[in-house]
């Protein structure tokens, strides 16, 4: 095997999907702890929201002396390189999350076992399903009173339409949580509360019929043995291929805050989750083992760091090897960039990348010339597909309190639009800029960022727009006719694409009927 193939084979790139408060942040920290990337837990204290404060990350960074970022974390485990991508954590749905999930090869679904399947989990899982992403499931918080375990599996199967294969099975819960039985290994791991415990400190008892279990749990053991028999008979056996097809999820039980169950998840990711997968482009399928470098940008973040006023484009490497200083081609602009300042992932120190392989995420600093969906290669024309923009469903017109700040407003919105934080439309009739979003929280984020980063107090007003459609037509003359006739409803988005803003459903259907040669697109994949 070539070195590139070997490096690709030992990479795992995944994201955690969960409803806020299920334990994503806690679990992230414990994954870092178990991998040895940080030395002690408890770094994230007093956190109320589902997001790490930057300062928490900086603490972790100081501790371990490597860079950690809220967006991408890389760590080593069992001779593998693991890339963990953060999915933005707010309750509202944002497009950013969709696009992060296009850059992973598997996902870890965390469920609060007291609550079961929640709204955000459903949405995120549906996104994963678009690409049949394999899912590992962790049922968290067994140190608390939680719901019946079989009922939880039923709920996952019925609501999320994915078959469950329990790998471990909980013994008790809450104050009576004793541990888990590992069905495949026929071992029992004894639970002990304590946030600092490391893996080897949990006691292991071999065999469900081990007499030690009768001594330890004289009351519960009979019931447990019966339950295990029932579970084994009633649930699906683990099937690696079904998992890789996204049809079946291995399920683990534990308590993230107590470090319990973490190692099993890490092992599942290493042993079962796929190494970087081939990626589709308009031109051909790109294999991760190919010698030449290629990748696509799935996320852009501006103003992350007051000291660095530029922006970072997050690129997922899809093939070959990236080495520091190599020249790569930015295909949309047909321009070589000298990639000497490319970083592994964001941090206040910004580590320079020495090398990166398929599955890794690299950050390219830029001043706004890189857009989401852009492809980079050593020269070959490749257009990665599947990085979606969604027709917004919520619209606001933007005004500013101080007209002298118009320039800042336009600059800010242009940047936030290119970042994908919100969609920005410039109406052809010269009216106010229009913002479009799929989740209402996006407007709040934009208001706050305009104020903080651009010093602009913007006012949003409702507009009578019902939906947007991207418009295309192979026949230029027809398109020009269409543009002329519909100038009042047309706009250009931040990426320069022609968009039809429909005031209502009826208008849209009538327009579609009237212009059969024009294509109206509900999603836009960057090409
Ligand atoms: P996120 O919003 O998904 O990132 O969730 P957090 O990791 O912030 O956790 C939400 C809350 O659940 C916090 O108060 C955690 O301390 C708590 N929590 C996380 N894991 C566990 C667990 O295993 N047991 C218990 N009892 N609480 C937990």
TrEMBL record:
Matches recorded under InterPro entries: EF-G-like_DII, EFG_III/V, G_TR_CS, P-loop_NTPase, PrfC, RF3_C, RF3_dom_3_sf, RF3_GTP-bd
Taxonomic lineage: Bacteria, Pseudomonadati, Pseudomonadota, Betaproteobacteria, Neisseriales
Protein residues bound to GTP: 18-25, 86-90, 140-143
Localization, UniProt: Cytoplasm
Protein name, as recorded: Peptide chain release factor 3
Gene Ontology MF terms: GTP binding; GTPase activity; guanosine tetraphosphate binding; translation release factor activity, codon nonspecific; translation release factor activity, codon specific
Keywords: Cytoplasm, GTP-binding, Nucleotide-binding, Protein biosynthesis
GO cellular component: cytosol
A biological process term (GO) from this entry: regulation of translational termination
NCBIfam families: prfC, PRK00741.1, small_GTP
Similarity annotation: Belongs to the TRAFAC class translation factor GTPase superfamily. Classic translation factor GTPase family. PrfC subfamily.
Coiled coil in keyword set: no
Keyword Transcription regulation: no
Biological function: Increases the formation of ribosomal termination complexes and stimulates activities of RF-1 and RF-2. It binds guanine nucleotides and has strong preference for UGA stop codons. It may interact directly with the ribosome. The stimulation of RF-1 and RF-2 is significantly reduced by GTP and GDP, but not by GMP.
Organism: Snodgrassella communis
